[in-house]
């Protein structure tokens, strides 16, 4: 947990704007690269640092949504980037 934080907010389907702002701040506090790989598409193959922080960011995102939303995002067909699958909750 980042210093001074009160924990990860949980996306519950009603608080997307608040949740997104808090998650951006949380991921940047881990490392600016953690937010960068979440916010921007990486062209080509990720380097070692991008891969490391992509995994950390994905873990934080999974921890920050309720099970029902996680299940709906994972079940979408065709599969899409996880972040894009959260947009319907805006």
Structure description:
It is a single chain. The chain has 90 residues and is mainly alpha-helical. The protein has one domain. It is 58% helix and 0% strand. It is built from 5 helices and no strands. The two termini are 26 Å apart.
Per-chain topology:
Elements: H1 16-30, H2 32-39, H3 48-63, H4 67-75, H5 82-85
Task: Summarize this structure briefly.
The protein is mainly alpha-helical.
The number of helical elements comes to 5
Rounded to an integer in angstroms, the radius of gyration calculated over CA atoms is 13 Å
Poorly predicted ranges:
none
Give helix and strand order, one letter per element, not per position.
HHHHH
How much helix is in the residues?
A: 55-70%
Shape, per Cα inertia axes: globular
Helix and strand composition category:
mainly alpha
Please give a handful of descriptors for the protein shown.
mainly alpha
């Amino acid at each position: 947990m980042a210093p001074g934080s009160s924990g990860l907010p949980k996306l519950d389907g009603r608080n997307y704007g608040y949740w997104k702002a808090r998650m951006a701040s949380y991921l940047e506090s881990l490392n600016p690269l953690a937010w960068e790989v979440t916010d921007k598409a990486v062209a080509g193959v990720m380097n070692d640092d991008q891969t490391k922080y992509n995994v950390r960011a994905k873990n934080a995102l999974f921890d920050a949504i309720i099970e029902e939303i996680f299940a709906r995002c994972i079940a979408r067909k065709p599969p899409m980037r996880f972040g894009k699958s959260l947009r319907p909750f805006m």
